[in-house]
Hints:
Among the domains are: 163-315, 2-Layer Sandwich (BirA Bifunctional Protein, domain 2), CATH 3.30.930; 381-489, Rossmann fold (3-Layer(aba) Sandwich). Helix content is 40%, strand content 20%. The protein has helices spanning 19-38, 52-55, 87-96, 139-155, 170-180, 193-202, 204-216, 235-245, 252-263, 267-286, 343-346, 359-369, 391-403, 417-426, 437-442, 450-456, 463-469, 481-489; strands at 42-43, 49-51, 71-73, 79-82, 104-113, 125-134, 163-169, 219-221, 227-229, 293-295, 309-315, 318-320, 326-328, 331-337, 352-358, 381-383, 408-410, 431-434, 444-449, 473-477. Helix 1 runs antiparallel to helix 4 (139-155) and helix 5 (170-180) runs antiparallel to helix 8. The structure holds one RNA strand.
Amino acid sequence: MKRYKPKPRLYRGFRDIFASDLLMRQQMLDSIREVYELYGFAPLETPAVEFVETLGKFLPESQTPDGGIFSFQNEDDEWIALRYDLTASLSRVCAQYKDIQRPFRRCQVGPVYRLEKPGPDHFREFYQFDFDTVGTKSMMADAEGCCVLCDALEKIGIERGNYLIKVNNRKILNGVLETSGVGLIDTSTDDSRAMNVLRSIDKYDRIGLKGVKELLTTGREDASGDVMKGLGLSENEISPILEYLQVGTGDRVEVCDQLESIVGNSEIGMKGIEELREIDKNLRCLGYEEGQIVFDPTVVRGLGYYTGPVFEAVLTFEVKDEKGRVKSFGSIGGGGRYDDLVKRFTGQEVPATGASIGVDRLLEALKLVGKLEERSTSTSVLVAAMDKNHLFDYQLIAKELRSAGINTELYLGNKGIGGQFKYADKCKIPLVVVAGEDEFSAGELQIKDLEAGRELAKEVLDRETWRKDRPAQFAVKREDLVAKIKETLNL
RNA sequence: GCAGCUGUAGCUCAGUUGGAUAGAGCGCCUGACUGUGGAUCAGGAGGCCGAUGGUUCAAGUCCAUCCAGCUGUACCA
């Protein structure tokens, strides 16, 4: 009789994550959380599923959700979706629980979902680690956001100089748009001229000044032959934009001065520059240098909800991947000020600012840099089950080690002692405790240090010698077991 | 989404102008070695050649469509 057998397979853009990656991720998350909590951000957890209206992702003029999110209808025909970031849920929480004390400072880690084209380091389910302050207009909160990002990156082992926080202000971008005559940002429509100009500015680091100019005017054809039609701006309109792009990322005060000469006539632009100056004062007071945090007028970030300062964390070093190709990591996090997010629910203006670290991308980077201890298990000791007559003794040995806080596995398979060593070797368990009749009657146990043995095995020995010498193995008195194991593990 | 490239064993890949039972290395399993990882040696398992249709006496090989992956580009709240 034939039965239907499902093929084991993964849905596009999703993945299984095994112990070695998870153990590294955990190390990283612990470090980040430690920094967030140092600044007084309290943890929060919300569901992965929200109403689409909560996420604000209905398409304009239509009853259907944005195509970029995973959505479905419940039994009452309401649209439900997987969250695409943690900020929308935060604003819902702030609108829903009215007695929350403000400023509300929370951090949150969890998976988010986006229905986009997946790639090598680009999945449809990935982790973000956010921190936000809701209910403060103070630029100190925005400056603090940058500091938190710096501290967190350094805490996980990225040295100063290998990362950079790039800061800009949406108000200044608005100022340029106003000065050029393109008009202010209107977030209600996706296809306005202002939006498209911002998209072009965002590409500056990739396509350069010439490329941006082409996009703003006549259009551009890239190396693959793809054609993008231009926005058809006039010379007068593009000239302040091009001047703006060339300000660069020098001294923070100088950047502000230069920006002032370009957008000085725009009220909103001036406001943005004032905000940056205030952030700079804060950063200087705290000792955060230009090498860590710069003002970069070309930073745009997502188009959606930012209203003031925006920042982006990038890794500045390059690394070769397994195939020897140069890999550079772009943005590994970022954030900014969003003063209108809670307003959607309550009508009240609630100023807020915060940022987020892209956990998976950062993890990939750290793996290639070798900043994390790579382990395929957290188990330290395997108690070998050699003699069926002593199974309960093995249990008690394992229990004793566990009571001492040592991660211990009792071998539960059906292989002989040789197979058990092989198992420990493959699983990267560093120590094996072995005992048989001889040891029990002598009141002893054998400890084998597999990692030390691996080193010894590099000199080629014949089988007989290898077995007879029992490399990296020694006997201990039964009562010294825990102490000796701890010593060997450097605990 | 659009364009180009790729899809053969768990992994990395061979496979002639279309030609008979589809190969290698690594890994895996078994044994030499019933109380010791590695090295060595001997043996073994493992494949609807991404899927479906077509051309042909004959398809891993050619054509079409689909699926998946890679590269670029667009979008990325």
